[in-house]
C-alpha cells in the first residue's frame, strides 16, 4: 500500500499561488484605505466649515484675527463658548474630536 504524501513541488506551487494572490490583493486593500482616508478628511473639512459658519452666524468670527488656515482650523477645533440672547445657558461650539494629524489632512479640502 502506497501512502500519498504531499511532495515538495506541491508545497512550492501552493506557496507561489498564495504569493500571487497576496500580490494582487495588496494594492486593492491599499486603495480601499486611501479612499477611506480621503472620505474622512473631506467629512472633517465639511464639519470644520459648517462649525465656522454656525459661529459666524452667531456673531463670533474665528477668521478675523488669523490669516493662516492652520490657525483658523485650530481655533475651530478648540471651539468657543457662545452666549446667545435666546438661550439661558452658554453654548459650546467646536469640534474637539478631530485630532491634530487629521486636521492637516482636512486642510487640503478647505
Keywords for this entry:
single chain; two-stranded antiparallel ribbon
Sequence of strands across the biggest β-sheet = 1-2
Distance between the termini: 74 Å
Shape by Cα distribution: rod-shaped
Helix/strand-derived category reads: mainly alpha
Output the helix-strand order.
HHEEH
> How many separate structural domains?
1
Task: Tell me the strand percentage band.
Answer: 5-15%
- Specify the helix fraction band: 55-70%
The biggest sheet, with number of strands, parallel, antiparallel or mixed sense and barrel status, is: 2 strands, antiparallel
Backbone CA Rg:
26 Å
Question: If you had to describe this structure to a student in words, what would you say it looks like?
Answer:
The chain has 110 residues and is mostly helical. It has one domain. The chain has helices at 8-57, 69-78, 100-107; strands spanning 80-82, 91-93. The protein has a two-stranded antiparallel sheet. Helix 1 crosses helix 3 (100-107) and helix 2 (69-78) packs across helix 3 (100-107).
Produce a short descriptive summary.
The protein is mostly helical and 110 residues long. The chain has 3 helices and 2 strands, in the order H-H-E-E-H.
Summarize the helices and strands and which ones pair or pack.
Blueprint: H1 8-57, H2 69-78, E1 80-82, E2 91-93, H3 100-107
Antiparallel strand pairs: 1-2
Helix pairs in contact: 1-3, 2-3
Amino acid at each position: 500500500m502506497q501512502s500519498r504524501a504531499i511532495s515538495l513541488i506541491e508545497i512550492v506551487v501552493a506557496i507561489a499561488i498564495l504569493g500571487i494572490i497576496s500580490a494582487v490583493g495588496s494594492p486593492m486593500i491599499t486603495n480601499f484605505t486611501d479612499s477611506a482616508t480621503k472620505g474622512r478628511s473631506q467629512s472633517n473639512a465639511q464639519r470644520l466649515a459648517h462649525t465656522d459658519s454656525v459661529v459666524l452666524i452667531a456673531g463670533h468670527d474665528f477668521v478675523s484675527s488669523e490669516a493662516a488656515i492652520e490657525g483658523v482650523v485650530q481655533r475651530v477645533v478648540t471651539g468657543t463658548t457662545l452666549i446667545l440672547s435666546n438661550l439661558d445657558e452658554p453654548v459650546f461650539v467646536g469640534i474637539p474630536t478631530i485630532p491634530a494629524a487629521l486636521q492637516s489632512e482636512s486642510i487640503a479640502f478647505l
